[in-house]
Amino acid sequence: MNGPQLTCVLTIAGSDSGAGAGIQADLRTIQAFGGYALTAVTAVTAQNTRGVTAWKALPPDLIRFQIEAVLTDFPVKAVKTGLLPGTAAILAVEAALKAHARIPLIIDPVIASTSGTRFLTGAGLRVLKQRLMSRAALVTPNWPEAEVLTGLRISSDADVERAALRLLETGCGAVLVKGGHSGGQTCSDCLATADGALSWFMGPRIKTRNTHGTGCVLSSAIATSLAAGRPLRQAVEDARCFLLQSLEEGRGLRWGKGKGPAFPGLI
């Protein structure tokens, strides 16, 4: 007799020794959001709340073997990517996912750490856009990432919309340009879908030093919601509410000497 099936989500990302972002943040979020997290580690980083001090990419074949091992055995309903350390890693992910085109792919395009460590070169970015973003159901860049990916300068809502529509030209199903780097009391994200429709999601900006890993939390929550069968707009709404609650509940905590994690499900 078969029991209930878990909502399985595969995260393909780097490991964060400070557990604020990357695989560790994805694991916490997917579990807190009701899913079962499966992992493929792409890189190992030495980092804490103050930044990255060292990092090393895993061999591309090992990245691919991890993904294939999971996809050939578990009923994966969504895949999300975070840190993809270079062209070879991106191609390995593409090859591993080739036979699983029906599984929605959410790409959080991690180009550099918040502290400034660069993970992707210009060549890597071109391959990401041409080979992986073209099959993504959703891409979730923040303002700086959207600027790098499009070559556009972003300083207004109109700029955000132009960047989102430009990124749709890669062939992805939708783009969510996150507004965490904008100023003001409101945090606004713009969702552009393949039909050219634009939707804005707005909420209060939480004053907190604990913002490390917010992009990981949001993309993992969206992936888990999509895996559970929710439509994209609802998945974005649910994930934003979840992140907002995580920031609110954790803002009084002190983690190390720098930016602490947006820790979902802690309180």
Short description:
The protein has helices at 22-32, 60-71, 87-97, 122-132, 143-150, 157-168, 214-227, 232-250, and strands spanning 8-16, 36-48, 51-57, 76-83, 105-110, 138-139, 174-177, 186-193, 198-204. With 267 residues, the chain is α/β, with parallel strands linked by helices. The chain has a single domain, classed as UDP-N-acetylmuramoyl-L-alanine:D-glutamate ligase.
Detailed description of the structure:
37% of the residues lie in helices and 24% in strands. With 267 residues, it is an alpha/beta fold. The protein has one domain (8-250): UDP-N-acetylmuramoyl-L-alanine:D-glutamate ligase, CATH 3.40.1190.20. Strands 3-2-1-4-5-6 form a six-stranded mixed sheet. Strand 4 (76-83), helix 3 (87-97) and strand 5 form a beta-alpha-beta unit. The longest helix has 19 residues, at 232-250.
Provide the fold topology.
Elements: E1 8-16, H1 22-32, E2 36-48, E3 51-57, H2 60-71, E4 76-83, H3 87-97, E5 105-110, H4 122-132, E6 138-139, H5 143-150, H6 157-168, E7 174-177, E8 186-193, E9 198-204, H7 214-227, H8 232-250
Parallel strand pairs: 1-2, 1-4, 4-5, 5-6
Antiparallel strand pairs: 2-3, 7-8, 8-9
Helix pairs in contact: 1-7, 2-3, 3-4, 5-6, 7-8
